Amino acid sequence: MRLEELTSAHVRRAVSLYMDRAWPRPAETVPIFDPAQLEEAATLEQLFALCRKPEGGGSEPAHSRYTMRLGNERYPFMKLVIQEYLVDGEFFFSVDTHDDHIDVAAGSPDHAQWQELKVHNRTLKEAIETAWHEAGLPTHRDLRALAEGLARVEREGEKRAHILVADDEQHVAAGIAALLEGRGYTCECCYDGRQVLERLARDPLPDLLLLDYAMPELDGNQVLESLRAEPRTERLPVLMATASSIRLERLQRVSGFLRKPYPRELLFTMLERLLESDHA
User: Fold this and answer.
1) Strand 65-69's sheet: what is its strand order?
2) Which CATH code for domain 141-279?
3) pLDDT per residue over 68-95, tens digit each?
């Protein structure tokens, strides 16, 4: 949805649908967010003022991103996200489960419970985003459709490079792949870290891996550790994308870094630069 079409009513509706599912009534716990405070925000600018901007730790994203920590009855850190992504001026609603920021080791007695909670959060995320879509609010399904439409008019000649797109947001992955195919690349998608490693265990290897940091099963850092430990993939170009704060020492194992949300033009430029460098 274009920014000029987005209104405070859209945001309040998104919050209402979120709260209905994340804090079902009667809830055993008191919600951490009171939607009544949004009634005092008459304009979109006033609502955005209640949101959090990206935290430090890496470069600022090239597109706007606003978050509200609304939580759910089992986990307080889940967020509503309003962000401009891939297409200038187009904003979409999504849910950030925000559970990739906590590391519960496999040997910990809480590991099984933590994994179950992450499944719960992901199921809740999908339910909320489906409710938004059914209510006519812009979600990543619309991002995918927009990207597929743009790809048909931005089509370029064959680039002779194959890119593996790894992102747990399936509509985002499909949208990115469509844009890249429109630019002449061939693409395939994976949706979690284990799928990435299983695919890269087979030939032929892609020319570049576009890797999202926050993924289920294995996150981007764990995928990188496995790739760099194997001779056949230790030099595979990896462009990592994340909305999370990342310590700079982790970037030494990647070829490039994109701070989400980013415009598609920046993605195209980074890919061209990395592929040219690798071929050279």
Assistant:
1) 65-69, 79-84, 91-96
2) 3.40.50.2300
3) 999 999 999 999 999 999 999 999 999 9
